[in-house]
Structure formats: structure tokens, C-alpha cells
Amino acid sequence: MPRASTRQQIIDAGLAELHARGYAACSVEDITRAAGVPKGSFYNHFASKEKFAVEAERRYFQVSGWPASFEEKSAVARLRAGFEALYAGAQDRSFSRGCMWGNLANEVADHSDAIRGELAEGLDAWSAIVTELVAAAQRNREISAVGDPAQLGRFIVNAWEGALTRSRVVRNGQPMDDFFRMVFGLLLA
Length: 189
Known about the structure:
This protein is an all-alpha fold. The protein has two domains: 6-55, Orthogonal Bundle (Arc Repressor Mutant, subunit A), CATH 1.10.10.60; 64-187, Tetracycline Repressor, domain 2 (Orthogonal Bundle). Helices cover 71% and strands 0% of the residues. It contains nine helices and no strands. The chain has helices at residues 6-21, 28-35, 39-45, 49-63, 75-92, 100-107, 113-139, 149-170, 174-187. The longest helix is centred in the middle third of the chain and has 27 residues, at 113-139. The chain starts with 5 loop residues before the first helix and ends with a helix.
């Protein structure tokens, strides 16, 4: 297996630090220490912590646990598998970190157009994936839910973000269990 580039080491290690600590509490020194590189290496690859955060946001969904390929399943099963993977990740972290996108949205979006813009793109891309699965489920008559699949897709992503945030507060999976019951037991039944 080829060795990761220094830039990729910084992104991967820094993403974990950013997710664990939050933007304000995560220093460039924390990021470079976690990556095992000198502090100067950070600035060779990123003009600022803000530019780094934008790159970390792009990488986040790739490593979030959402299955990349599950074509053999029904659209609803693929959608459920994606959220189950995210649930497993939250459970592995004892419901302590929430979603890095949600965390950054709450902490930084009002102060950084670059971070807010990347968050909007990421959430739009994720919503588009969910929308396509909802549309496929409607076409295949897997669900009785009618209406605009894009609106349903955005709603499902928004509901997940809210459930994950509340799970972080109560430190258990009950809000996400509610999400599964409401989305897969009622909305997409």
C-alpha cells in the first residue's frame, strides 16, 4: 500500500482532530502533532486553518461510513444501510461527536463564507444521493410516500442531523432510533 502524501496525512489526522475538538479548540499545532509532521508542513499545503477545514469537509463524507456500493439491494435498503453505517459510527464514538458538518455549521458557518459554502455543497450532495434513492423507491413502488423526492431527501438529511445532534446531547441512540422508526417505519413504509 502506498504511503499517504504529507498533505493527505494532515487532512486525515486533522479531520479527526477537528471532529473531536471542534474548529475553535483545534489548533494547527494539534493537527500537525496528530499528523506527525512539522508545523511548517501545514502551511506548505494550506494557506490557513480555514482552507484546511474546507478540505477536511470534503474528505469527511468519504470516511463517514456511508456505504459506497450496495447496488444489489432495493433503494430503501440502500438508504437504510447508509444511515445504519452512520449510526454505527456514532455508537462507536459513544455518541460524543455528532456530525462534523453539523458541528461546523453550528460553530463556524456564521463566520466563514468558505466553510459555510463547502458545508452547503456537502449537504446538497448528500441530499442528492438520498433524493435519488427516494425517487428510485417511488418509481419501484417500494414506498407509498408521494411528493417531491428532493424535498423528502432534504427532510431526511435534516432529520438525521437533528437526531444526531440530540444523541450527542443525551449520549445515547434514542433520538436516532426515533429517526429510524419515523423515516423507515412511517415515511418510507
